[in-house]
Amino acid sequence: MDDGGVLVSFPVLQQRAAGIGARAALIALAGIVVVGLGLRFATLGLQSYHHDEVVTAMRVIPGSFGEMLHKVRVSESTPPLYYVFAWAWSKLFGVGEVGLRSLSALFGAATVPLGYLIGRQVLNRRTGLILAALIAVNPMLIWYSQEARSYALLVFFAALSVLFFLRVAEGGRRLDLTGWVLSSGLALWSHYFALFLLVPEAIVLVVALRGRLAAALTAIGALVLVALPLVPLVRDQANPTHIGWIGGMPLPERLWDSLASFAIGETGHVIAEPSRPGLAVVPLLICSLALPLILAFGSRRERRAFSLAVGLGLAFFALATAAALSGSDYVTERNLLPALIPLLVAVAAGFAAADRMRLGSVAAIALCFWWVAFDLHVDRTQNLRRPDFRAVAGVLAAPRSTARAIVTWRLGADPIRFYLHRGAQRAFGGRAWIDEIDVVRKSSARQLRPYLPGAFREAGLIRQGRLEVLRLRSPRPIEVSIRNLLHLPTGFGVDAVLLEAPQGAGAEPR
Predict the structure, then answer these.
(1) Angle 284-285-286 from CA coordinates, rounded to 5°
(2) Same domain, 423 and 368
(3) 356 & 432 share domain
(4) Same domain, 349 and 450
(5) Which of 406, 396, 383 is nearest to 490 (CA)?
(6) Distance between CA atoms of 362 and 359, rounded to whole angstroms?
(7) Do 212 and 339 share a domain, yes or no?
(8) CA pair distance 102, 312, nearest whole angstrom
């Protein structure tokens, strides 16, 4: 491709400048892949399911294939591709944490060698190895490689789209254009936010293929046809209750939290903890070194590659922000994940460009070591992990012959129901006859208010990590207002009540 193109390809010069032979690169890549596999699979069952994962395991994929598709349409807000895979996967490996999450872990690990191919395509083998290493150890990518939701698929297919996009932009074959259409379509069928990556890619391809404009427009038209069946699904899935919580946080705060999460994973509101932007300072500072390094040491081509990658990432953020400001506000960390791949490409390109002075290698190694250390720290730290509803359910699971209410966080209700394996049901109003109240709350929650019926007395307090179960008992069943129970302080934002009684929840005892 001539100098007027988006990128200029000189494969022989690239590999000579990279200074890494093919065999050495493959050996290094194998080691990086092993690290990525270990970080994803070794602790796959360490954390209990969170709310969204339980929705997958308990509501969406049980039952027939047709029932699964119906539940995706009426109760989800994402396309069906992940659930199609998860439905089939669960038939082989079950709906336990390791079995179901292993699907996401597999796609997450597969993104690591894909990162090598992207880096090699955009510059050289050294860039590919750096990018593969960053993907292997990035806390955000590891987090969603261990979640039974669609995000690992989204990242994988978005990365595949970036790879074929780069190949086409460098004058690739017709087969590469077909690969871009297919991978982009799969990304869209994984998550609607893939659109914000595909739009700037399509615009760049129209410019890059101005000599083959008909082929570019045909490919974009084919992608539109692939996406068309999603239009009625988007209409059916539109439900303000699915995303009402998003608008409770200012948009600038969410954008900053997203950038911080790219560096440290989910350490804030998603796990019902305060945001910790301070933890992101070190990795973000190291990443920011890519800019001065590319400016000081990068060739014209390296700077062009860096600019393209940064442009894709920033364009994604800009389009998502524009959609939010226009009224379609779905901006939250995990939905912005496709932007992470091109941003990591830019970081890897900056580090690789400065390797003649070894500064890039030092920065890359420092970032990888910091991320690995943080990944291990998360595994050991309760306040950086999902709430342990599995352990809480173990406390609650003693055999019972009388009725009780369980008061907990709204997003903790379904995980507790899942782990109890019994007939606890959500209660949204009315009154119930109970003789026990178990309050699942943060250990830091304030004391209970004194409006409880006088017959209830504290009967025990059991700590489970950052949660605790406060048990209140009455010598006889008492009729209690569900509304009053919903006001018991748990330390979370919005509470929920579960009723559990062998004779039928909420029924007056005879």
Answers:
(1) 90
(2) no
(3) no
(4) no
(5) 406
(6) 5
(7) yes
(8) 30
Amino acid at 136: A
Single out the residue in 384, 416, 447 at which a domain terminates.
Answer: 384
The answer to whether position 509 is within a domain reads no
- Chain length of the chain: 510
Tokens representing residue 225 in the block: 């046809």
**Largest pairwise CA distance in the chain:** 87
At 198-254, the pLDDT tens digits run 999 999 999 999 888 999 999 999 999 999 999 999 988 887 665 556 767 888 999
Listed in sequence order, the DSSP H helices in 413-460 are 413-420
Predicted confidence (pLDDT) per residue in 104-154, tens digit: 999 999 999 999 999 999 999 999 999 999 999 999 999 999 999 999 999
Residue 34 to residue 105: CA distance in whole angstroms: 13
Distances in whole angstroms, Cα of residue 148 to Cα of each of 44, 45, 112, 247, 312: 11, 11, 19, 24, 27
Integer CA distances (angstroms), 331 to 17, 67, 147, 237, 320, in order: 40, 29, 19, 17, 7
Q: Which of 238, 284, 240 is nearest to 258 (CA)?
A: 284
pLDDT in tens, 335-352: 999 999 999 999 999 999
Domain contains 508: no
Domain containing residue 404: 389-500
Structure tokens at 495: 């509470």
Q: Is the Cβ–Cβ distance between 141 and 151 less than 8 Å?
A: no
Residues 320 and 334 grouped into a single domain: yes
How far apart, in Å, are the Cα atoms of 136 and each of 222, 264, 288, 375?
Answer: 33, 14, 19, 11
374 and 411, same structural domain?
A: no
Task: Let me know: does 283 contact 340? Beta carbons within 8 Å.
Answer: no
**Residue 1, in any domain of the structure:** no
- Cα end-to-end distance, the chain, whole Å: 84
Q: Scanning the structure block, which residue is given the tokens 């994929």?
A: 61
Using only C-alpha atoms, the chain has a radius of gyration, in whole angstroms, of 25
Q: Are residues 442 and 493 located together in one domain of the fold?
A: yes
Lookup: tokens for 113: 């060698």
List Cβ neighbours of 195 (8 Å cut-off, separation of 6 or more): 188, 227, 319
> For the chain, what is the domain count?
2
Last residue of a domain, one of 320, 351, 384: 384
- Give the global pTM: 0.92
Do 78 and 238 meet the contact criterion of CB atoms below 8 Å apart? no
Whether residue 507 lies inside any domain: the answer is: no
Residue identified by tokens 């306040």 is 383
For residues 380 and 393, membership in a common domain is answered with: no
